[in-house]
Amino acid sequence: MNLKLLKHPILTEKSVRQKDEQNKVTFLVDPKANKPEIKKIVERLFKVTVLDIRTARMKGKMKRVGRHVGKQPDWKKAILTLKEGDRIEYFEGA
Q1: Which domains does the chain have, with CATH numbers?
Q2: Which residues lie closer than 8 Å to 55 by C-beta, 6 or more apart?
Q3: 38-85, pLDDT tens digit by residue?
């Protein structure tokens, strides 16, 4: 089991709302990670029960600075539904 597959939580308005209302958390994960690996890592690392996982591959955006054009890398996110009563606390008191 490789802990580097789970990179960091995604903190957007939508993900924070899902966390509060539906007990779902969103993480940026390695594009090679699969659902069973993600579930095992999150359950072991945060001591919670994961009921459902949805993953999405996101295309990197095209960016330009002046006449130079570049592309941000493609990435993958995982939306995890946690068991009722389980919570993953990050940036709660900040």
Answers
A1: 3-82 (3.30.70.330)
A2: 29, 35, 38, 76, 77, 78, 79
A3: 999 999 999 999 999 999 999 999 999 999 999 999 999 999 999 999
